[in-house]
Amino acid sequence: MCYVIITSASLAWFLCSLVANMLFAVALVTPKWLVGPTQSLNSSTSPHRQSSVGIYTRCKVMQDGGFHCGRFDLDGLATDSSVYPPEWKAAMFFVSLGFSLMSVTVLLTLLTCCRQSAFGKSIHNMTACAQVVAGISVMLALFLHPMGWGAGRVQRLCGPDAEPFYPADCSIGISFFCGSIGVILTFFAAGISLKAETSNMRSHVRRRVETGSKLVCIP
After folding, report:
1. What is the DSSP letter of 163?
2. Strand 67-71 and strand 57-61: pairing?
3. What is 187-208 written as a DSSP string?
4. How far apart are CA 9 and CA 83, in angstroms?
5. Do 171 and 157 form a contact (C-beta atoms < 8 A)?
């Protein structure tokens, strides 16, 4: 029988997972992990534009007042370590892993509306485990990126005093905070999955399914 079960817990689980995944995507692609000090080169330079760097991208205020953003991992993880710090390569791997796992779990949260188990295992439990692994992966990246703040690239942006876990003249950017909030939401989503499974297995939900209801919406 084909049926769809939607409860407040399952809806909250899906939305929490989706938002966390979107935050991971922002942290991955935006060059705002570290934001450099304000530069006043000439009147044509926007005061709102500051040089910044992410995991594999950077934005730079040019000498002529222009602004350029692009990638610096031209050879991927094989890029020279003087250009792409090893710690950031590892951070890139773990953020990508976390984002990929969360993308899969978002789809699985939808699947649980019409199927509760697969291969004799609870889809809720398997998804929750994957979300925990995703959260840990991105959390590792949040520790690895500051370990590379002593690299020459960071010292040129933030000043010669920059060192691991000390950004000197730079400030932590929105991308880093997006990753942090995403980790919290990921662990929260993993916890909600247990409540979602319990809600889907409640007796009055099962009774409605057994009576032939194809769409069951329970607050």
Report:
1. B
2. antiparallel
3. HHHHHHHHHHHHHHT-HHHHHH
4. 46
5. no
